[in-house]
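Worked example 2:
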Amino acid sequence: MHKAINIKLFGEEYMKNTKISLKLLTLIIFCLIVCVSISTINAEINFKNKEHANEKIINITKYFSIPEVREQNDFLNIYLNESNSLLSKSGEPILPVFLETFEFPLGTKIKELNCFSSDFGEMKLSKKIKLSSEPSTVECESAEENEINDNFYFKNQLFPEEIYSYKISGGLNRNNEYTTFLTVQLSPIRYNPLVNNIKYAKVINLEIIYEEPSDIYVFPNEYDLLIISYDNFAPLLKPLIDHKNSHGIKTITVTLNDIYNSVFFPVEGRDNPEKIKYFIKNAVENWSVKYVMLVGNYVKMPIRYVNLETDKGEKYEELEFISDLYYSDIFDYEGNFSNWDTDNDGIYGEWPYPENLSMSDDVDLCPDVYIGRLACMYGFEVKILVDKIIEYEENSFESNWFNNIIVVGGDTFNEINYGYNTNYDEGIEANKKALEFMESFKAVKIWTSLGNLTTSNIQNEVSKGSGFLYFCGHGNPSQWGTHENSDNNWTEGVFLRDMLKFTNDGRYPILMVGGCHNSQFDVSLLNLLKDPQHSLYYSTWVPECWSWFSVAKKGGGAIASIGSSGYGCVGIGDWYGNGIPDCIEGFDGWFETQFFRLYNEENIDILGETYGQLIVDYVNNFPVYTYRWDGKVVETHVLFGDPSLKIGGYQ
């Protein structure tokens, strides 16, 4: 999300043939004073806030060491001690960068950014810098390691063009405050592919001039949880409302007819999903609602398809998918309504493939409320979920079974097919990363490398009970599966029918599933009549999708699940050569595993907040507005369950 603000860049290549202005001279003198007073090696970012009329200023000085160059086969990788992220868009060179996110009250105006870099160095390279690969979604027949983009290597210009960039978003921070997030990316190393050298800056100074809003977003505290229900389901929710109120979660149920007939607020919006979203906005502003639970499947509770396109015209084309994040992203960073259709053409979250390098619609993506869905088709499913949620929150606290975490994985992408000179089992590596964050939990490992990944073993272990369950591999709406290392054959996995043997009644885990379309819930037996070939091939003919079926099951299954409604994407190999598998450095693997860190290391133990902060962190750490695969990660994921759920139950 870029904003039209005044940006000024100062540096070696910008100063030639230019008269130094008084303002520039003043800035240079200031920076010299700062440099004298701070060590040039170990200095941290320094902040100095100043008041000038209604404007405030943040001054930042960051020092960088000399880059390190390492060979990896026929290419080079560049390393920088101070970096905390990478430029890694497919077809572009992998370069280290430094990211910093600043938080301001929602509606803050970022008036001006000024940047000055100094103490330059230059380094001639012996080989080309390695270009990043596309993430992978499904098995393919073959792939080449680092197909060289000849057009890129013949460019006689520095990459990236500017020494810094920024993005702005708006949403809830960890304190549940409405926040404008400003993420600044400093790029001290830039690469000229034709000349084949890098230029680097050892010092970067950044000045941020901003103006906070006169009114802070604080709303009347009437309700915490808003339940929006299909009309016939509403009476079945009363026991849950009583339970929530008894634990201090002030709860109200509103039906679709209430929304459409202006019972609480005047109806607004062009179609039913937008009417619901405007109602949520009014509920936030008038009731201070923090959690929103949608009750009904895609037929009974409207959904929003978003049009972020991938692989158009090819085998794995996907031009639209469901995104419940649409309902969660209420405000943009200025506090305006985020309608996801800023060009008003009726196409939401538009990102044409492959020509557009960024979104056609301005989509903020950061949650302003915490959304979860009970995708119930029938009333008896509502009763099942009401009973499971109450039982879980009342009885889970300090239960022995809750301290178990079950992880299931194998070799998601086969080295035989991809030839990336790695032997990582991507699913297992992601499982291991999750276990690092969950050290206090007892790990139950069901891995192809251990020879124990069978359907019956999964059924037996799940039936014993666990606090968390993490599958990482391949999927579709009807099943999940994976491979053994260097084996194209599928292992035993879990089909919908296999979940019927989960007997963990009262011992329900939170399920995280890595795999394509496991949470695609616009499925129906009627699809066999509409398009039998497509529905059979993509398994959209099943009555309910895999992730939701695990939650809706009576007498066992999960209490909530998180998975993707579309194609997933995973990094393969170790393209950067840093010894960290790409499958956990970005895309779905990063997204899935960071959930466990937020829960167990940051102690965010309300399900919707854990999931919501996961999305905020992804938006702030990855180029979601300029790289479609990163945008797709946050847009496709769906939370099935109660967003106000107390993980581990109430004491």
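The radius of gyration is 25 Å. The chain has three domains: 6-211, 219-388, 396-601.
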